[in-house]
Design brief:
- Keywords: Oxidoreductase.
- One of its GO terms (molecular function) is (+)-trans-carveol dehydrogenase activity.
- With 62 residues, the chain is mainly alpha-helical.
Length: 62
């Protein structure tokens, strides 16, 4: 999450609503990133190696 996005989230900016409509799922929150990182460093992800995995809430689908 970049600084501008974090500021919008903290301020509950109405612009988040329009951003939400552009995504097939909800907007990623800091906890979502934390959970993804926790999974990737866990034993459950031991076979996931050598890739770059974007966390983009499906934005390229739109």
């Amino acid at each position: 999450m970049n600084d501008a996005m974090a500021t919008m989230v903290e301020a509950n900016d109405p612009g988040l609503s329009s951003m939400q409509h552009a995504l097939p799922i909800q907007i990623l929150m800091p906890a979502d990133i934390t959970n993804a990182v926790a999974f990737l460093v866990s034993d459950e992800a031991k076979f996931i190696t050598g890739i770059t995995r974007p966390l983009n809430a499906g934005f390229p689908v739109r």
